[in-house]
Amino acid sequence: MGTAAASPEQGVWRIDAERLWSRLMALARIGATPGGGVDRQALSAEEIESWRTMIDWAVSAGLEPSTDAAGNLFIALPGADRNAPPVLAGSHLDSQPGGGRFDGVYGVLAALEVLTTLSEHGVRPQEDIVCVAWMNEEGSRFAPGMMGSEAFAGVRSLEAVRAVRDADGIAVADALDALHAAFPALRRRPLGFPVAAYLEAHIEQGPVLEAQECTIGVVTGIQGKKTFDIVIEGERGHAGTLAMADRRDALEAFTRIAAALYAEIGGHDDAVKFTIGRLQVEPNAPSVVPERVTMRIDLRHPDNAVLGYLGQRLAALCETFAAPCSVRVTALVDAPSNGFDPALQQAIARAAGSIEATHMPILSAAGHDARHMAPLCPSAMIFIPCRDGVSHAEHEWAEPAHVAAGANVLLNVLLPYAGAGEGETP
Which residues make up each annotated binding site for Zn(2+)? Predict the structure, then answer.
């Protein structure tokens, strides 16, 4: 599992790999599923319990926990200048309903481990270095996701976030107030304070690093994403009496639309990712002609020009193939591709080299909170492999050696900010 402590005297700093792994497994028990995964929904009782655990670990290491109005958790290693913009590193604690032990939480615990290591060695940086756990990255309980980072970055208003409700009708506002009520003594930071830099460690959630037998992915950017809610309106009718020629069958219209979308949008080029991920048919009765079909579409591409074009074509194809039904296309998410800071990418590559870890540039196919930090400050991501590229599943897995390597890279990238390493701040 690697060395168990930092060793600055030998020229290369290292985190406590055993402590990091044991904490990953400890948080995996909060919301554990029978299949070995995790169900820890945003703003749930399980997430509140994970906050308690994180705060206990932070306080025991001499670190300072705080929060903000959007329910983001911050844990700071205090710097000499408490008014200077801090450096942030982290990810998220919430999971998919049948998620794994590493998605999101690895980046938070890697950042906490870095701060704990620095604190143990008496490091006092010039500015605060802060571990962050963003609220509701996954969007599985409250949709869409990335609410905490979007509110922090000003992409979405706090009022809009608080108005969202889950499937049981519970509003974010009520769940967020309950979270804050559970920690009445926790200091409240202003929402969207200035940040000097942002780093996020994460499992790849894809097969590339494993296939290339590479330990560290230097993430160049995140591909763009659009999501759409599409409602096809027809007319209900009796399955035994209504002639085929007289029907306005919403499901039949769906089959035409779906075929056209898969052929033109999904087949545009090798880089496109097109998914119809949710389908609802009404009244969904065996002897009734369907009157309404609702579907949710996820469209991704690394080229913003192509993504924009495909989004326009998607709406046009829906209109073309809907008749005799009507169709309504509503855009839900419009997140363009973004690149990450070149200097931070170089620092990640150097840090990987310093611990003799193989590394390669890689584009993130999945979305992350780092997307919203990139316009605010120099930002970057560190990927480690996950077995068979599996994520958002109970059998998601990362090797202990890779977990340690990613955290060691994060540590050595942050050292110049801490004033504890050689070289200039990226």
Answer: 92, 103, 138, 202, 392
